[in-house]
Amino acid sequence: MRTESSRVVVATGYGGPEVLSLLEEPTPVPGAQEVLVQVRAAGVNPADYKSVRGDFGADPARLPLRVGSEAAGVVLDVGEEAFGPAGPIAIGDEVIAFRAPGAYATALVVPASAVVPKPQALPWEQAGGLMLAGVTAVHALRAVGLAAGETVLVHGAAGGVGHLAVQLAAGLGATVVGTASAAKHELLRELGAIPVAYGPGLVDRVRAAAPAGVAAAVAVDAVGSDEAVGASLELVADKARIATIAAYERGKEAGIKILGGFPGADRGTEIREAARLELVEAAGAGKLRVLVAATYRLEDAAEALREVMAGHVTGKVVLLP
Q1: I need a labelling partner for 74 at 20 to 30 A (CA). Which of 21, 43, 96, 189 fits?
Q2: Measured between alpha carbons, how far is 114 from 242 in angstroms, rounded to an integer?
C-alpha cells in the first residue's frame, strides 16, 4: 500500500558513516517512463561509502546526498509507458532496480529502464544484493576474454564481486583459482573454485594449485592490493587479460585493464546493462548464489557501511527497510 511519506537515508555532509541521517520525505510520484518501488532490500556496496566520503566529488550543492544504487521491491505505481528491459511493468510486480540512486529508502522512483523482474524463488535479501556485484563480475570476465578450458585467478574470491565471478567463471567451464583467507576455503570449493591463501608465497601457491599451470591464465582483481596486481602480472603473460575493479593507481601504472567508475576506466555500460537479465535468469534457476553476510535495518545504515568499509565481508551486506 502506498503511503504519504517514505524514509530515506541521506548524507548531511561528506565524511564517514557518522554523516548519515534517516529522514522522512513525501513519497515521490513517478513521471512518464518511471516506476515507484517499495523497497524490500537494498545492497550495500563500497561505492556507497566512497560516495559519502566525497571520492566522486564533494559538491556541497548535492547535499543532502541520498545513498545507495541497487534495490529489490514491489512496484507501487507506474508512469505512462513504463516499459523495462523485459517488457511492460505493472503495479504489484516484484522487481530488481539497478541503477537505482538513493536506494537506501523505503520507497524510490527509478526509470522503468532500470527495472527487471525478480525471480519468485529468489529471497529479497539476495535480490537486493545481486545486481551491482553481478554486473561487475560479468564485465570483468568479459573484459579479460575468459573462455572455457582456461584458468582464471580471482583475487578476493569470497567477496561481493568475487564470489559471483567464481560461480560465473565455473559455469563457463573455466578452472577457477580464488584467493581468500583459510577460513573461507571450504566455501570457495562449494562455489567451484580451487582456494589459495593470499600473503607471501601467493604466486607459488597458485602455480601449484592450477592443474595445468597458469601460463595462459587471465586474472580478475577484486581486492585492489599491490599483492594482487603483482601476482597477476607475474602469472599472466598478456596484460590485456588482467583486470582490476579496485586498484586504479597501481593498475594504471602496470598497464592492465581498469574497470568501473574511475577516471578513464572502462565503465562497460552496455555489457553491464545487458547482463541484468542474464543474472536474474541464472539466480532464478539456482545457478547463481548470492551470499548474504549480514542484514541491517534502514536506521542502522551507518553500521552496515562500517562493516563494508572494514573489508573481509563474505558476499554482500544488505539493508532490509
Answers
A1: 21
A2: 29
Phi, psi of 294 (to 5 degrees): -160, 150
Model confidence pLDDT, tens digit, residues 218-263: 999 999 999 999 999 999 999 999 999 999 999 999 999 999 988 8
Residues in a beta bridge with 195: 178
Number of domains in the chain: 2
Q: For the whole model, what pTM was predicted? A: 0.96
Q: Which of 130, 74, 112, 83 is nearest to 283 (CA)?
A: 130
Cell numbers representing residue 89 in the block: 511493468
Residue 104 domain-assigned (yes or no)? yes
All three cell numbers of 38, joined, read 517499495
Assess contact for 4 and 24: CB atoms under 8 A: no
DSSP state of 266: B
Of 178, 261, 190, nearest to 223 by C-alpha is 178
Q: Which three cell numbers stand for residue 32?
A: 512518464
pLDDT single digits (tens) 99-119: 999 999 999 999 999 999 999
In terms of residue numbers, what domain contains 247?
A: 133-258
C-alpha cell at 200: 607471501
Report, in angstroms and rounded to the nearest whole number, the Rg of the chain calculated over CA atoms: 20
Residue 250 and residue 142 share a domain: yes
Confidence of residue 212 (pLDDT cuts 50, 70, 90): low
What band does 215 get if pLDDT is binned at 50, 70 and 90? low
Query: What is the Cα–Cα distance from 305 to 319, expressed in whole angstroms?
Result: 10
Answer whether residue 180 is part of any domain: yes
Hey, what's the torsion of the CAs at 292, 298, 302, 303, to 10 degrees?
Answer: -50
